[in-house]
């Protein structure tokens, strides 16, 4: 224990060397099912806020996120009890962007886009610094960060926030990213599916509920990438995508679109393509609420550092509200002895 923190007593998640010991705090499913923090179903927004000092790692801070044991990888090869994923919502310390505030949600508790992992996630533009957990008191007191995620069901936007600021984050050329290439394929399959007949590269077995086609109804900007007498390539930016469009001059002299490809995908905010959060029944298919780690078959060390507070809201907080919560980390530190 630290003996102080933004709200009193902060806890430390250490970099344990014993792979059989992975500590975290949790509320069992039996105690939280249908409670105010069991946010799920249609028309449900959520905000998770965690005040923390990140020492290392990029994994879970807090949420309802049971990874399942059905991931078909080395860590699960010897597990006899196979459990499907039970993911609802959670806040991470970065994942693919170490140190960012990463929001994660799931519509089915399981995987996305035929990948083994859930991939609906957003990363703040800013990155939290790595601070040794045994630093002097003055260093620690100045190192608190406010990680947050919001999901707004009305806009379908999932956003990561660090210290009250979201910021824009894009991934260029998503087809080459080890994980997001699955989202690229989901975008491609959705686009090909809308064309009449079976198109080259189209997978007729790809499940329609896993297509990923963010709205492209409002053009933000257009940039010409190349141009000749007979061909022009444009980069068209929409809110969540940048599309490379190839146009060729027809016999009538007019340019006609002949090809398009997903050139960049927005990671913050991320467009969530579903209308609900995973809704587990009261039959053991729901996960607990955990702090400092999620239920995960992998035995690697996740987040390490100090956690000074956790809050969950049943709506998407506004930017000014998140800035106000972030400001709490800069107030005079409260010692545990001062908390009644």
What does this structure look like?
The structure is a single chain. The protein has 340 residues and is mainly β. The protein folds into two domains: 4-166 and 270-338, Jelly Rolls (Sandwich), CATH 2.60.120; 176-267, no CATH class. The protein has four helices and 21 strands. It has helices at 29-32, 137-141, 181-193, 319-327, and strands spanning 4-5, 11-13, 25-27, 41-42, 46-56, 60-66, 86-92, 102-105, 121-123, 145-152, 157-162, 169-172, 221-227, 231-237, 241-249, 255-268, 270-271, 276-277, 289-291, 304-313, 334-335. It has a six-stranded antiparallel beta sheet, with helices on one face. It has a six-stranded antiparallel beta sheet with strand order 3-19-6-7-8-9. The radius of gyration is 22 Å and the shape is globular.
Strand order within the widest sheet? 2-20-5-10-11-17
Structural domains: how many: 2
SSE string? EEEHEEEEEEHEEEHEEEEEEEEHE
Helix and strand composition category: mainly beta
- CATH class group of the largest domain: Mainly Beta
Radius of gyration over C-alpha positions, nearest whole angstrom: 22 Å
Find the count of extended strands (DSSP E, 2+ residues). 21
Helix content: under 10%
| Form type | globular
Q: What is the first-to-last residue Cα distance?
A: 17 Å
Task: Identify the CATH architecture of the largest domain.
Answer: Sandwich
- What would the average pLDDT be, to the nearest integer? 93
Question: How many helical stretches?
Answer: 4
Strand content: 25-35%
Low-confidence stretches: none
Main beta sheet: strand number and arrangement? 6 strands, antiparallel
CATH fold label of the largest domain: Jelly Rolls
